[in-house]
């Protein structure tokens, strides 16, 4: 297991240390993460979604060892974050949400500094820096000071920093925020490429990003995990209402016929002989609609089931 989070809780305010039974505090306590469990297998790319303030960054900071948990355990690459913090740091590449960079340093100077903190030997480090600059597409900007770089290129420096010590696990907190569409596509490609032989947990607010990159999605809301699974599984599990659009040769003289199909809850006429038919439960209406059309001599020219978009699922689960 590359990441194993068990029963993790984080409270801000109140007591600063780990909880022991019966411990209480007078200060206002904000429970940012509430008994969550989550595992990420080696080689998986997992999208971590949730509305603002849901607890994504808090979970990621704890997983990288930057913040202590209030309760629960976290292991990265088999190392416990509390008992083996240095092994955890070696195992993880972390791009924090507000990518902290030294603006006065040159790109290579900064990467050399970041690499030396990881104890990478000088000769090996030069080669690693060259390779990472190439990998994240910093070639043209590599001789600038970080303060002279655009947001997208600063983000690439952060990504290069996270990858420098060749960690098996990458934790990226909103790595594509504020990038233009071209940069977005390039950084996504970088994440996909590094994800071929690394475990990646990344947070984002962009649904298409998850659809484009991830094997699996975890959705957190108010500190609790409300969904966890492959995208296809989430789509069918959260289906709730199944919607089918049936198109006939023209408007039906008796559209109420459609409501006689077992399971149909609502029929909404659209234009050009189309009807949006909603079933309350997870049943496929298409066969029944087809048979109904045949029985009543109605010419059915189209029939398609609408897929739940990740956006719809997200809204449903986090409202
Ligand atoms: N240092 C802190 N002190 C007190 N409360 C905090 C602190 N950091 C985060 N919080 C609170 O914890 C909750 C979770 O915040 P967190 O930053 O983990 O959410 P997030 O899902 O990453 O949000 P966003 O998508 O807006 O970045 C929020 O209510 C936030 O206000």
Give the arrangement of secondary structure elements.
Layout: E1 3-13, E2 29-40, E3 45-49, H1 56-63, E4 71-76, E5 79-80, H2 85-91, E6 92-95, H3 107-117, H4 122-135, H5 151-163, E7 169-173, H6 181-194, E8 199-203, H7 207-213, E9 216-221, E10 224-230, H8 231-237, E11 242-248, E12 264-269, E13 274-279, H9 286-295, E14 300-306, H10 310-318
Parallel strand pairs: 3-8, 3-9, 6-7, 7-8
Antiparallel strand pairs: 1-2, 1-4, 4-5, 9-10, 11-13, 11-14, 12-13
Helix pairs in contact: 3-4, 4-5
The structure holds adenosine-5'-triphosphate.
Adenosine-5'-triphosphate binds near residues 12, 52 and 53.
InterPro entries: AAA+_ATPase, ABC_transporter-like_ATP-bd, Motility-assoc_ABC_GldA, P-loop_NTPase
GO molecular function, one term: ATP binding
Family: Belongs to the ABC transporter superfamily.
